[in-house]
Design a protein that fits this description.
The structure is a homohexamer. By secondary structure, chain A is α/β, with parallel strands linked by helices. Chain A has two domains: 30-183, Ribonuclease E inhibitor RraA/RraA-like (Glucose Oxidase, domain 1, 3-Layer(bba) Sandwich); 191-237, no CATH class. Chain A has helices at 6-12, 17-26, 75-82, 104-112, 127-130, 188-210, 224-237; strands at residues 38-39, 47-58, 88-92, 100-102, 117-120, 123-124, 137-139, 151-156, 160-162, 165-167, 172-175, 180-183. In chain A, the strands form three sheets. In chain A, strands 1, 2, 3, 5, 7, 8, 11 and 12 form an eight-stranded mixed β-sheet that branches. In chain A, strands 4-6 form a two-stranded parallel sheet. In chain A, strands 9-10 form a two-stranded antiparallel ribbon. In chain A, helix 1 packs parallel to helix 6 and helix 2 (17-26) crosses helix 6. Chain A is elongated. The C-F interface holds C 27-32, 57-63, 94, 96, 152, 154-155, 158-161, 164-166, 184 and F 27-32, 57-63, 94, 96, 152, 154-155, 158-161, 164-166, 184.
Chain lengths: 239, 239, 239, 239, 239, 239
Amino acid sequence: MTTVKPESIEKLRHVSVATLATALYKRGLRNQTIQDVRPLSQKGRNMVGPAFTLRYMPAREDRNTLAEFRNPKHPQRHAVETCPPGAVLVMDSRKDARAASAGDILITRLMMRGAEGVVTDGGFRDAMRIAELELPAYHSRPSSPTNLTINEAIDINVPIGCGDAPVFPGDIVVGDDDSVIIVPAHLADEIADEANEMTAYEDFVVEQVRAGKTIIGLYPPTDESNLETFAKWREVNGR
Amino acid sequence: MTTVKPESIEKLRHVSVATLATALYKRGLRNQTIQDVRPLSQKGRNMVGPAFTLRYMPAREDRNTLAEFRNPKHPQRHAVETCPPGAVLVMDSRKDARAASAGDILITRLMMRGAEGVVTDGGFRDAMRIAELELPAYHSRPSSPTNLTINEAIDINVPIGCGDAPVFPGDIVVGDDDSVIIVPAHLADEIADEANEMTAYEDFVVEQVRAGKTIIGLYPPTDESNLETFAKWREVNGR
Amino acid sequence: MTTVKPESIEKLRHVSVATLATALYKRGLRNQTIQDVRPLSQKGRNMVGPAFTLRYMPAREDRNTLAEFRNPKHPQRHAVETCPPGAVLVMDSRKDARAASAGDILITRLMMRGAEGVVTDGGFRDAMRIAELELPAYHSRPSSPTNLTINEAIDINVPIGCGDAPVFPGDIVVGDDDSVIIVPAHLADEIADEANEMTAYEDFVVEQVRAGKTIIGLYPPTDESNLETFAKWREVNGR
Amino acid sequence: MTTVKPESIEKLRHVSVATLATALYKRGLRNQTIQDVRPLSQKGRNMVGPAFTLRYMPAREDRNTLAEFRNPKHPQRHAVETCPPGAVLVMDSRKDARAASAGDILITRLMMRGAEGVVTDGGFRDAMRIAELELPAYHSRPSSPTNLTINEAIDINVPIGCGDAPVFPGDIVVGDDDSVIIVPAHLADEIADEANEMTAYEDFVVEQVRAGKTIIGLYPPTDESNLETFAKWREVNGR
Amino acid sequence: MTTVKPESIEKLRHVSVATLATALYKRGLRNQTIQDVRPLSQKGRNMVGPAFTLRYMPAREDRNTLAEFRNPKHPQRHAVETCPPGAVLVMDSRKDARAASAGDILITRLMMRGAEGVVTDGGFRDAMRIAELELPAYHSRPSSPTNLTINEAIDINVPIGCGDAPVFPGDIVVGDDDSVIIVPAHLADEIADEANEMTAYEDFVVEQVRAGKTIIGLYPPTDESNLETFAKWREVNGR
Amino acid sequence: MTTVKPESIEKLRHVSVATLATALYKRGLRNQTIQDVRPLSQKGRNMVGPAFTLRYMPAREDRNTLAEFRNPKHPQRHAVETCPPGAVLVMDSRKDARAASAGDILITRLMMRGAEGVVTDGGFRDAMRIAELELPAYHSRPSSPTNLTINEAIDINVPIGCGDAPVFPGDIVVGDDDSVIIVPAHLADEIADEANEMTAYEDFVVEQVRAGKTIIGLYPPTDESNLETFAKWREVNGR
């Protein structure tokens, strides 16, 4: 698995998903943002970590009685107990929020074990309680029925889809107060650097725009003088 | 109509919709949660009461002019004026939120008459104002057009669908800050008891998990020692 | 283009979209509310202004590289830089929120130029930041990918659809904390008057209902005595 | 119930659903066509008869075991056995085709009892066999699971929605090789007359267009001379 | 893997998917029918064979260039070249028909290698040509773009979802002119027997109904005399 | 406007939409196939011609009475009367098939004027009759209500979206028995050449596969010997 530099993880904590989407777009990657997924509560900080995945398939009734949860190797529970500290558990719930992908007990356990966050393209039950946890969590909408109704957890840490985005184990997952994006592992370092630079420029641009400047020539900087002003701004602001 | 014990109603005020969904799932009922409906504002308490229903059908233009509201027996207005105190008005709006199921005047009247709450699988107009009322209200999304545009109120207190859940008059409707579930009247007492017990155990589990315990063997309690610890916990906590 | 009286604009600041929807419904206009669009943050005040429109079409990859934004006449940027003060920029994003209609830099610039607000039937990126701006903004859901992924801005100030509502340049756009409606320019003055009257009656009704009165005979006022009480209420309350 | 003249029924056998939709549109009725429903096989003739309705609600598992079909009063079976000869059985399946509204045995029985046709906004099982029956049948798509999986038949001959069209018992249902429309009973006679006239003109227009004429001035006949030509055409063609 | 008797496969060739759905429903399995999938052309015979599966995930652009097809182990091509004779290739295309699951060259090869059929919950390209092949094929709708646009083939012969039905390798797939169903391998023998019996009775019932009999007491046979008549019918008809 | 060679038009008559989709995909164009649109009847030949476009917007009731059709410049009628011979009329009906994009009279007129074909991402009324015309027509599904109900024709020959594909006037539209694709005008000549070559190879491959050859090494031709065999095949078959 590709190793991502700790500095990159740190940089990714300070850039927006929108900026990352543009950086990936420059490299021809258009579908890395997880569609139609939102934070249960806004944390004011980014979730950043490698993806650890769980795949759901449609549930067959005879394989999905409550008794199944007595099996300590049940993939849903096993995923929660084996997700590495610092990782983000990403669930392929087949974009079906009619049943829960997990509830507050499992997500609390995930948090206690040191996970960085959790994402599903389905919904969480006990969403009101999960929203109060420290751990960032993202889903489509609250959903109270047990996952057994609709979905069977079948595979751990295989490539999956989540909200129509491709997710490979080890890809870097970044979530902000808007949405979640998947940065392919082999691109994470360069994307982190580039997004960091882009963010500095965007912050400068916002300041300029708030001061009354037009975006023409400024964003993007087709008027070279803006780059000079930016250079000075960086010095002054230590960025 | 089946009579539900007042103690059951009280117990249902202190359990989550998710727990009820699991209790019903054990009995083979998988579709009692109203899908894709959410509270207009979170109340921090449960809505619990017997269902009083209103059925909408598609509106035919010549039958749905504003003049229709002059009829004191118009089913929408009549439902609001006859919904019993303590009951929850549940509307089958055919999952169509392009027009309003009701607005703040009717919902305020419903509240004044002592209703416990209101649910539609369409949307409310004046949602911002309804959200500020004491009365719990649940819908799919805000919707400003008058119901006449899309829906005609046609029947009161017949069996309906709401968010793909079956609702019979007198069924017990329970809503929390996540969603709403329909407990069939004849099961309400036993479900209330069971959910109450389940909630005690879940509260115990959350406490254990927050203290660092694994969920394996604990949730569900396949390791018997957890049941012993739970027994002591109940004593200490008076539950 | 039809001229709308400044007093009408002022009146429209104090009526709800729901009331306007009913006033338009009386005139046979059923589809003026923009469907499935919501405020990024509730402002507690109405957005009111003439529509200035931007039309998107599906993006063709060779026409939608990041380099396109270097063109000062790119319609998206041009729209932002030419939207008149007091106007509402309304975007036809083909109801596709898989890519952003705009982000915080452009919306900030729009605000600085004096626009009254912005509406898209797609989604905004940097939604968390746009929500904090003074400027009212409405969309379907947050969406981080750049618009180039899905949509190409192609036309400025032509008739468009937005959330299935017809929007002609110069129509009066009114948004409250629930949703957004399009008042055809030639009807704006009379609708403003009528909605203003309706709002007075509705406020009276809410007060009556909160005091325990039934809605039968009151809303609508089929019992004439209610109109007398209303007349006195207007005097007392100066409305 | 309104009585419709036998001549009207006969006339409705020779006009298209499209023509009827326009005739109803002139009277302000825009939503009478059943949306997203198609013939299982094209019959080359119209289905015409009064609506006899069946309403489905979401199925609750304990009420919908196969044993329920042993009840001779089960509404689905009862509807088939009581639908009057000449009537069209119209089913409100909540636009949910994930389970069958009925299968070939029931539809064969319906045919043997003299029904004119059958329509559902869900799907039929054994669709390949139903397609071969004389009886016109319309649905959304083939669907093999028993209706018990999703839907419970709950009411007979009440007002319903079918494919978002309002259907009242006794309304005249007309289906052609494209789709199905609901003509309100009280309008059926005048609509039949008008559509009959419109059809004569449309047949004339098609002939003219095939002969090379422009539609401008002809359709609609803003050029008066076309009406004169039409008058002669009617004489010649005996219409 | 469970072994299914050759006689069972043979029996399954002569029963409908609808009958199988009911037989599975009796055992509590409600979701085995693949939803919203239809034959490209009606064959007038059943497709029956064990499932061999292919799983797609969302495509990431850098992994899905046309060059990928040069890899002889590309899972899509590899699946076609390793699907056992007599098996049905079932593809989980995530219910996304915006790109093709396969085209006529691959499906022709699959046929030449002796496969029994092919099913996708996406769409096939070259559908007009695939429809002319002997091999039964089922999909959602024709779709001309190459699968690389949307989907990446990632896994062979793992448990998947197809049209919201759970599919395990080795399950028996049965398709008729209406739709496709998945019979779990361990139930295939008993379901084949039972469906065979049910079909005999259904054929008898259709004959009776065509002769004018009511369905009450006959279907289901609550009137015992019908079972006697059926017994004679079986003798006479050798079933 | 770019001129496309007549030979290219001719070549495009003999290649499939699927092949064109792949040729465009090689150039980075992934979304040129019109999604979810199908032929009203299969013609066994391709429709090929430059796009002439019509844009619909949502209908406002006061602007869309039947009287509007009396206006000879009504864009829908005007488009039909001005679409050049050999061109394909492509309609942006906002993917809304609840009302008709056109009916048999207009489409017959279009045919008489020499148009090559017609495409809408909505639906046609009188679909059964249009299907019988010589003119190729493509839509989403039959739809009987007049377009006035939902859509207003507003612009002629502007860039539009159709089934989520971008369409510029003059782009070459190609339809086969499966679907429709938009070839950008400036690429049409080279795409025609390339697709022609690809088709020769694909025909060769199908022949080889039918003779029992594996696709590995053949499709794509990673085994060079296949290219030699192909060279001979071309000679023999004069391609």
